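User: I'm writing a tutorial on reading structure tokens. Could you give me a worked example: one chain, its sequence, then its tokens, then a sentence or two explaining what the tokens reveal?
Assistant: Sure. Here is the example chain.
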Amino acid sequence: MAEVRQRKGKKEEPVPRIVELDTDEESDTPVPLQPSTTTRKPKPSTKELLDEEEGYSPWIDILRVLSFLALASCGLSYLVSGGESFTWSLRAPPKYMQLDWWKAQLKGPIYLTPAELATFDGTDPEKPIYLAINGSVYDVSSNARTYGPGGSYRFFAGADAARSYVTGCFAEDRTPDLRGVEDMYLPLDDAAVDAHFSASELAELKAKERAEARDKVHEALLHWVKFFENSPKYPKVGYVKKDKNWLDKEPRKKLCEQAAKGRKPRKIPGSEE
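And here are its predicted structure tokens:
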């Protein structure tokens, strides 16, 4: 039986695909891609880097820093001095710019008895000059010409002379005892004038006058207390130590002559100007 051989069919060839190319709007010719025109900057060579480092000078940067510091210093000096100086040449620098003030802060306040305070009156050149007012001690050595021996305010040195700050009697009132100081602000009694008041009216008037006089003493002393507290020239260094009942042991002082001269007679009602 004859073999029947089947013919192999021809291999089918793949159908070619048609791909459309993007074309220019005005032409059907495909637009080829343009090659990039950007070029990378070549890295500097080692020799170029070394040459650049050798050519660098730090003095320019140093000059810039120094110029900035100089300008900042001038501006800060102007602010601190309240417009007085650009170069820190202050007549009375603040306390925090004084070495003695910082020493006192680190050391802490000192406590002196009146007898110990008396040794700081300027007669010993090895010691500072201290004065006290209302119990607080201040160093006035920076103005030795005024507070030292022979100075116009030498009576304040070495003592708590609070009374003399009010009365103006520097030599006589070198004491903190303020009893009776208000009398300098009281009117003088006059029988002819007082006859215009009834007993109750006169008592009420005198009580009012004394209260007002004490307020004036307080204000007068407070003026000087604040003066030393706020003065950049005179740092506070401590306090005066006193016995608990020290005032009871002190004899009551009379009003000094200078303060007594300022007293005037009480005026008749209706005659006040």
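What the tokens reveal: The two ends are 168 Å apart (CA to CA). The mean pLDDT is 82.
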